[in-house]
Amino acid sequence: MEIQVREGNVVRRNESKVMVSCLTGILIVLTLTVALWGTGFLLQHAAYGAKATDGNERVLRSATETSQVFEAGTNRSATYRAGDYRPFAIAMSIHGSAKTGRSFAWYTDYNDQAAAPDDAMDSLVEVVEAGLAFDSKTKLRFSGQARVLPVKLDNTQNATFIGHKAIVEGLKPGTDYQYRLGSEGNWSETGSFSTEGEDESEYEFLYMTDSQGGNTNDYRVFANTLREGMKKFPAARFLMMTGDQVDRGDWESQWFDFFGEPQDVLMNLPIQAAVGNHDGPFRQENSFFHHFNYPVGEISNPLPDGATYAFDYGDARIMVLNTMDMGWNTDQRQAFDEQIEWLRKEVAQTDKKWKIVAAHKGIYSLGGHSDEDEIRELRALLFPVFDELGIDMVLQGHDHSYVRTYQMYKDQALKKIEIDEAGRAIDPDGTFYIINNASGTKFYDINNNVLNYYGAVFDQPRKPVFSGIRMTGDSLTIDSYHAGEEEPFDSYTIVRKDIKPDPIVDGASGRDGHGRTILSWSAPDEGEDIRGFRIYEKNGKMGDNKNWSAYLPASPDRKGYVYVLDGLNSDEMYTFVVRTVNKRNNSDGVSIEASSERIAAPGGSLVDDGFNTFGWTYVPGFERPEDYEYTVDGGKRWQPVVANPQAVGDSDYAAGDVRVRVKAEAAGEDQPGLALANRIAFTTNTVHRVYALAGKMMTGEQPHVAVDVRRIADYDGQAYLIVQLMNGNQPELINAVPITKDQMQINQYFNTDKDQYAVKVFVFDSFGGARKGLIHLAEPILLKHN
User: Fold this and answer.
1) CA distance readout (Å), 617 to 532, 556, 559
2) What is the C-alpha R_g of the chain?
């Protein structure tokens, strides 16, 4: 616990030692503080958007007139004076698209309602392109919403203000703007911002945390830290704050200092904040909610609303979490669980390369909170989710010390990663986590007693810290500075050259043999290996869970996939989106309209041109070959299936000629199921019987095949024995051996523990190019494990 010993206007902090002579006085102060905090404060207000009238809203007047409240208390504000109806505590943020919009929140005085202007509830924002006057014909005006807010200034004084919010939309990308906000005759100073460019892949932003302070001077330190950050990163597109903006979230005097001291900077810099435990108390609406204008309704049980949100900038998706006040009551647990579902869907939906999470409570830290049970619990809950989602960086706060971790995966430090000549990490696995000390005056010493298996760089300089993050098309760099120093004390760069995987193919929907709706699709034919598929409903129609999403791992031996959806409303139209996932990236999404009118198509169009077969994945409920029929003429004539894969004969078949479907009689219906077609053409095999093949499967400690090759006709060209180890219908290993003699025995060994496998053996005139156009020099053989 931090003890504060006041000497006039000076606050000395002692985090580890308490003077015995002060013990009695300290206990009294602590007792009073706990008692006052426990009383809480019930925030009453009219709804945003409702104009104040002479009725009930006007009655929401503070019982105490506070014309000089800040001079009387511990905090004061240079931007607020009673009776001045100009806006103050102004926060500009990214809301919606950073290319076309911004959001604003601000307060105005309402302590003397009788003297307030008639338009005091107006919430106007005027925007013009940079260099134009506000009387320009091109001026844009936006009207927002307002609420009357009776609030606490501190533990002894109340006041009444109007909280305003407005959203600006429809701007031009890559354009410099200036704005003012307020009402006629009571405008703010002029601020400025630039919208994101259409293809803005290179940019920078600031990251700071824990400006939390007990008096105005503490927030001046924060303001100076922010100004230093802007000098180092003058092109910063926004400020990311990871919580504990203030020390007492229910004391508006501290919020007024938080905004007031750096207001000149914040007029021109969007602020994106995570809620911290000191920014509470946690209820659906609190001062954090009123001071920022972030998206609301992302989860059903927000504490507070607007604390869980996401936004894009460049090729990054930044997702902001609320890590709660860790009382872990029922509401908090429900809200936290909902956030995890929300986070999964956010990642499922994005096609951005970089995925960044910002949250207050640091799950990897080395300060005073690092050995607390709640931090260990949070770590156990969150790191598997971040691993699953391929999060690149987690920006944290709370622990008031500096730590940047190694790349972490499965709660293990990955210390052996590829580093280039510039010291940059190249395509690393896992996620790195950072807490950049504090931006104000409150610091925690490094805890040397905690098991530190994750900290790559850690420090307690007892100076405020700020970090600048630079993004390019293939890199992320974070430079961290001690306030007052010219060079960064820690720098770290990740380079990622990976690309999006190819999207799924053959996406379809229908009914399975049990009456359930299923989605079916095939993995892409080309591109790098994929690790799975992300699925979500585009319009949030999955019952009470609008953030529903699912992840289905990929298997190397599968081409076709089905996903069963039970309990869908037959009267509702659903649109599901499926994306393939490689190491970290999502593919473009493929939409599938859910339907249960007909039996679904099989999945996994698998063409084996060499063996002239067509394979597929069974529709659930129809797992026998005899349940299906196939065609090789585009559907003119259908024949019974006898095997999967089905032999189709050695001929030229264009894409779409070969199809397979569930038979009507197998489904017990009047019409057959939907058909799966070949996407890759079949070509006639040109077989020259130059060699004869024979072979057998050998079991034992290391399974292998022994293949006899004998030349039976004149031939003086190149020849290669091709051996394919088959994992189901997919080749798992392909090897080629040059044939150099008229008669050879070739043994191919396999490192496999599979109980059932098969080996296909070919002889071709070349190896390493496309299959199409190869000349067969022998009839292929298939060897099976018995």
Assistant:
1) 17, 14, 8
2) 33
d(CA 771, CA 657): 20
pLDDT tens, residue by residue, 602-619: 988 888 887 789 999 999
CA distance 118 to 568: 52
Cα–Cα nearest to 179, from 109, 82, 269: 269
Q: In what order do the strands lie in the sheet with 455-459?
A: 309-313, 316-320, 354-361, 393-397, 432-436, 402-405, 455-459
Using CA atoms, how far apart are residues 222 and 550, in angstroms rounded to an integer?
42
3-state secondary structure of 546: coil
| Residues 449 and 371: beta-carbon distance below 8 Å | yes
List the one residue out of 166, 172, 181, 169 whose CA is nearest residue 101. 169
| Residues 465-513 pLDDT 10s | 999 999 998 999 999 999 999 999 999 999 999 889 999 999 999 999 9
Q: What single string gives the DSSP state of each residue in 138-160?
A: T-EEEE-EEEEEEEESSSS-EEE
Residues 626, 631, 636, 639, Cα dihedral to 10°: -30
Residue 317 has pLDDT above 60, yes or no: yes
- Rounded Cα distance between 589 and 587, Å, is 6
Distance CA 151, CA 161 (A): 8
> Structure tokens of 493?
């760069």
Answer positive or negative: Cα dihedral of 82, 84, 85, 89: negative
Q: Are the C-beta atoms of residues 279 and 249 closer than 8 Å to each other?
A: yes
Residue 748, classed as helix, strand or coil, is strand
Other CB atoms closer than 10 Å to residue 135's CB: what's the count?
Answer: 8
Residue 550 has pLDDT above 80, yes or no: yes
- Report the alpha-carbon distance of residue 250 to residue 292 in Å, rounded: 15
Residue among 5, 57, 12, 42 at smallest CA distance from 27: 5
Tell whether the torsion through CA atoms of 439, 443, 444 and 446 is positive or negative: positive
* Two structure tokens written together for 77: 């504000």
| Sheet containing 575-581, strands listed edge to edge, beginning at the edge strand earlier in sequence | 549-553, 532-537, 575-581, 590-593
Q: Which two tokens stand for residue 758?
A: 């098969």
CB 122 within 8 A of CB 180: no
Q: Report the helix count and the strand count for the chain, using DSSP H and E.
A: 10, 48
Give the SS3 label for residue 529. coil
